[in-house]
Amino acid sequence: MTAHPPPHRPAPAALLARIVDMRPGEAALVLRAWISAFCVLATNSLLKPLRDDVGVEIGSSSLAWSYTGTFVMTALLHPLYAALVRRSTRRRLTPYVHRAYAIGVLCGFVLLEHGPATLRLPAAYGLFAWISTLNLLTVSLFWGVMADTLRPGQARRLFGLMAVGATLGAAGGAAVVWLLAQSTDVLMFVALAALLLEIGARSAAGMRESGDAETDSALECDQPDARRDTRAPAPARAASGSAMPVSIPTAAAPDESTADRPIGGGAWAGVLHTLRSPYLLGISVYMLLLTTAATFTYAEQSRAVETYGGAPAERREYFARTELVVNSICLPVQVLLTGRLLTRLGVGWSAAMLPLVTAAGFAVLASVGSASVLSVLFAFQVLRRTSDYALSRPAREALFSVTPRTDKYAAKGFIDTFIYRGGDLLAIWVHALWRDAAGRTLTDTAIWMGAGCAAWTLLSVWLGRIHRRAAGEG
Predict the structure, then answer these.
(1) Could you give the CA distance from residue 70 to residue 134 in angstroms, rounded to a whole number?
(2) Is 355 or 178 the better-scoring residue by pLDDT?
(3) Burial per residue of 190-213, b for 16 or more beta-carbon CB atoms within 10 angstroms, e otherwise
(4) Which of 186, 260, 346, 402 has the highest Cβ tally under 10 A?
(5) What is the rounded distance in angstroms from the CA atom of residue 464 to the CA atom of residue 462?
(6) 411-431 pLDDT per residue, tens
(7) Are 56 and 302 in contact (CB under 8 A)?
């Protein structure tokens, strides 16, 4: 009898490449990104339920003032962050920011838990504002480093895969709080968050050490010779005196020396570049619409939790359970679908998924009775945030892959913190006037939210077209 050869089985690397579209030479870079993203999002998931409980302790009636304090904190910190960007290399920037975050949170909770009673309320406001500002800044910084490291084609393929580390971290942090909320002192969570921030900083600081040499061949695959441009991107050339317009960015090749070179820009570089570029202004408006929807949802959730949520430990458990479910659903989607959907749908339509889900969610929320509102809000938050984290967030971050290097940090930091928190502030006061002073119902809110989401969808598609042109793909 003739012996038949054993059936061919794909090698693990080949099998992984089929699933996630990761090319040779990219493994070490993705691994470091996973570690850094895991630590940042685990930290934020550990601290977010604690921050939300601080917000409930302050009172939902004072939520608008909590958001006002957060905006003031953001406004004060942004020039300091921009100055740090100008002077720092990428290897040093992340450790500086992470350590400041950890020290501020530790001091705030020590004062809140063990300080004089007269300082508890100011400490609560300050802690809410500090966590709300720095959790955005650390995530923005992580994605800025990724946009600085990858080409536009790589960003579309790998951002979803890199977000897996973020999802695992967010789910892990939420699980720790959920399981230990009623038996563990809050300062233990803070100490664990500080340790995670340090590990994440060290991983991000060494990002290019493992990425430069190993990703050269992969980088070449993502930009054909005819489109390769080693000059500074168009907006950077315009800012330096060229007649080139600033409205359409142009992709530029990552430089092996960028990790050890100061990022540059000035204290107001992020603000000025954003105001001069229709593309960056479009991203800013996208962010304002996103924060309006998220803040309205959060305000309705705070009302429901304050009414039906029970004791503080039960409220923390509810918030943590939401985080855990969201990230548990995100994980398989990010591994199996995100990269392929970003490539197939494009950045614009991927970013548009969030406004479409938001409009549908508010329509359902307006149709249920008050007895079911907490459960419906839980489901709405899970679906809205899953669509954000699994698809729209990677698409939104990929928009920065075609901007000049300074804008990946300064302008991105300005948009992700100041614009985001400015939208929060505007939205929370509008919500207070809309729901409390004017007595508007959820049905009224759903109608206006539907109109806003329609404009949000059109903006997403327009940004996707600009991105495609800047990347040399149309």
Answers:
(1) 10
(2) 355
(3) bebbbebbebbbbbbbebbebbbe
(4) 402
(5) 5
(6) 888 898 889 888 888 888 888
(7) yes
Scanning 181-251, the segments in alpha helix (DSSP H) are 186-205, 207-221, 234-239
Distance between CA atoms of 71 and 73, rounded to whole angstroms?
5
- Per-residue pLDDT tens digits for 248-262: 555 444 555 555 666
124-156 pLDDT, tens digit each: 888 899 998 898 899 989 988 888 888 777 877
Residue 232 has pLDDT above 80, yes or no: no
Q: Which domain holds residue 139?
A: 21-207+264-470
Cα torsion 222, 220, 143, 467: sign: negative
* Single-letter residue type at 294: A
Contact yes or no for 105/370 (Cβ under 8 A):
no
Is the residue at 256 inside a domain? no
Helices (H) and strands (E) in the chain, counts: 19, 0
The number of residues in the chain equals: 474
Domain count, the chain: 1
Q: Is 231 left (phi over 0), alpha (psi -120 to 50) or beta?
A: beta
* Threshold 0.85, pTM exceeds: no
Distance CA 29, CA 147 (A): 13
Query: Does residue 256 contact residue 208 with C-beta atoms inside 8 Å?
Result: yes
Q: Which has the closest alpha carbon to 67: 294, 359, 311?
A: 294
CA angle in degrees (0–180, nearest 5) for 17-40-391: 50
For residue 242, tell me if it sits in a domain: no
Q: Where are the alpha helices (DSSP H) in 22-151?
A: 27-58, 63-87, 90-114, 120-149
> What one-character-per-residue DSSP string does 329-366 give?
HHHHHIIIIIHHHHHHHHHHHHHHHHHHHHHHHHHHHT
Nearest CA to 233 among 219, 254, 212, 215? Answer: 254
> Is 127 part of any domain?
yes
Q: Which residue is associated with the tokens 């409009």? A: 359
Buried b (16+ CB within 10 A) or exposed e, 262-293: ebbbebebbbebbebbebbebbbebbbbbbbb
Helix, strand, or coil (residue 8): coil
Residue at 417 is within a domain: yes
298 close to 290: Cβ distance less than 8 angstroms? no
Q: Say which CATH number the domain at 334 has.
A: 1.20.1250.20
